[in-house]
Amino acid sequence: MVITQGSFGTLESISTKTVTTDNSLYQYFLTLIETKPSSEVLDKLHLLLAETEYYPDVEVQKMVKNIVCSPNTKGNCLSFLNNICQICIAYWIVEEDAKSIIYRLLNLFK
């Protein structure tokens, strides 16, 4: 397995299942960011983070729950959120209304 996202400090602290879940979520969000309007991505991200049980994709729900319930929950969650935000910002920074989009992303964490 190749880990393309530098999302964890050490491999010893996580399971292969967690790495696979983590990478699958990155791919999911990358596809979402590339194919959907930023407002829809933000709405989905908010729903996933704030009301996971209502997220329409059950597989994505399960992947998030696996990260949250992993042995290294705090580190995994922070790394996941950090990398998802970095992906969003890197993609949106070239958009005309980048400041407002990025501001809305940051407001999800208030």
Task: Describe this structure as you would to a colleague.
The chain contains five helices and no strands. It is an all-alpha fold and 110 residues long. Helix 1 crosses helix 3 and helix 4 runs antiparallel to helix 5. The longest helix has 20 residues. The N terminus is likely disordered.
Count every beta strand, where a strand is a DSSP E run of 2 or more residues.
Answer: 0
**Helix and strand composition category:** mainly alpha
> What is the 3D form?
globular
Number of helices: 5
Radius of gyration: 14 Å
Largest sheet: none
Task: Tell me, rounded to a whole number, the average pLDDT.
Answer: 77
What fraction, in percent, of the residue positions are helical?
55-70%
Seen as an oligomer or otherwise, the chain set is single chain
Amino- and carboxy-terminal Cα gap? 36 Å
Q: State the low-pLDDT regions, or none.
A: 1-19
The helix-strand sequence is: HHHHH
Strand content: under 5%
